[in-house]
Amino acid sequence: MQDSLKIPKHIAFIMDGNGRWAKERALGRTSGHREGIKRVREIIRGATQLGIEVVTFFAFSNENWSRPKNEVSVLMRYLDNFLGKEIVELHKNNMRFVVIGRSEPIPKYLQAKIKKAQEVTCGNTGLTVVLAINYGGRQEIMDAARQFAKDVSDGLVDPEGLDERRFRSYLYAADIPDPDLLIRTSDELRISNFLLWQLSYSEFYFSRKYWPDFGINDLKEAIKEYQKRERRFGGLNAG
């Protein structure tokens, strides 16, 4: 690592290319998702070793419900397995688990498991692992605006007092810092309705590799590239 003092605190991942990875190997799409979960485990372990504080994975968008029913069922089963097995490991390693996104129409039994996993790990102080499930960036902003409007209607807040800090408090996980770095795999150059508010000043890194091929060494390369950049947040550079 070039600069151990310039490690991004929060890295967000758009895990793209599972289906294409599987297709190129004459495998079913679900095989790509299964392999992709292995990379999630690897990145979580690596993030802890590198001193990263938060990792966010775009696991399932609100548009993904339109995928074939069998694929959606398999993805829900993989989520169930993750909640049953991986949460035990996260908790044992002092990691906090957070989910962002709407609850409906996620199956009720999974909603219950998600709630329990968040409650069990809420006091942990190590790496925070965020899964975006049934998530959309525009959806998050609309939900925040709707809740703010309700609070105004109920007389709880003054609309004249609305600023960025106040509005942020209405987002799904307001205590999670904005990503310093967004990584998207499979050479797709867009953010696909992901963390639209939070990515305003993030650095972007696009990898040609499919997600199932993206490992810890690729993460280190992305961080090296991040360390070469100067983040100005709309201001001027030091020169």
- Fraction of helical residues: 40-55%
Number of helices: 7
- Which series of helices and strands comes N to C? EHHEHEHEHHEEH
Kindly report the spatial arrangement of strands forming the biggest sheet: 3-4-2-1-5-6
- How would the global form be characterised? globular
Structural class computed from helices and strand pairing: alpha/beta
The CATH architecture name reads 3-Layer(aba) Sandwich
Biggest sheet character: 6 strands, parallel
Low-confidence stretches: none
Number of strands: 6
CATH level-4 homologous superfamily:
Decaprenyl diphosphate synthase-like
Return Rg in Å.
18 Å
The CATH class designation is Alpha Beta
Distance between the termini: 25 Å
User: β content, as a range?
Assistant: 5-15%
Task: State mean pLDDT (0 to 100 scale).
Answer: 93
CATH topology: Undecaprenyl pyrophosphate synthetase
Identify the notable features of this structure and list them briefly.
239 residues, alpha/beta, Undecaprenyl pyrophosphate synthetase, 6-stranded parallel beta sheet, globular
Description of the molecule:
By secondary structure, the chain is α/β, with parallel strands linked by helices. 43% of the residues lie in helices and 14% in strands. It has 7 helices and 6 strands; from the N terminus they run E-H-H-E-H-E-H-E-H-H-E-E-H. It has helices at 18-24, 29-50, 69-92, 108-121, 137-153, 164-168, 216-228; strands spanning 10-14, 54-61, 96-100, 128-135, 181-184, 203-206. A 6-stranded parallel beta sheet has the order 3-4-2-1-5-6, sandwiched between helices. Helix 3 packs parallel to helix 4. The longest helix has 24 residues, at 69-92. The radius of gyration is 18 Å and the shape is globular.
